[in-house]
Design brief:
The chain is α+β, with helices and mostly antiparallel strands. It is built from 2 helices and 4 strands.
Length: 101
């Protein structure tokens, strides 16, 4: 079993906020594909990374799904689609192998 997390920014690079409709679309797509989703919106996480000696920050929301198999090709294509839709150089999609208790 895998836990897949998709980290999406609340704002584009010009600090223009994405609409709830855009996040609802992701929620619906992942629910349709995997039968359920957990989304963390109430307390956006703060992401930080260093590039060229400059630290950048993002407020992000996290979408999580659980799946029995990890289809890397599907997730790679979906990540690329999200990068275009959310106007990002890179969207983090990460997977962790988990055990259901």
């Amino acid at each position: 079993m895998y836990l897949v997390q998709v980290l999406l920014p609340l704002y584009d690079n010009d600090k223009y906020p994405f609409t709830q409709i855009e996040f609802d679309r992701v929620r619906n797509e992942l629910t349709d594909a995997f039968g359920g989703i957990t989304a963390y919106f109430r307390s956006p996480a703060l992401g930080a990374w260093k590039a060229d000696s400059k630290v950048s920050h993002d407020e992000i929301v996290v979408f999580e799904v659980m799946c029995a198999e990890l289809d890397r090709v599907w997730w790679g294509k979906y990540r690329q689609e999200l990068e275009q839709r959310f106007r990002q150089i890179e969207i983090v999609v990460r997977a962790t192998q988990v055990e259901r208790l």
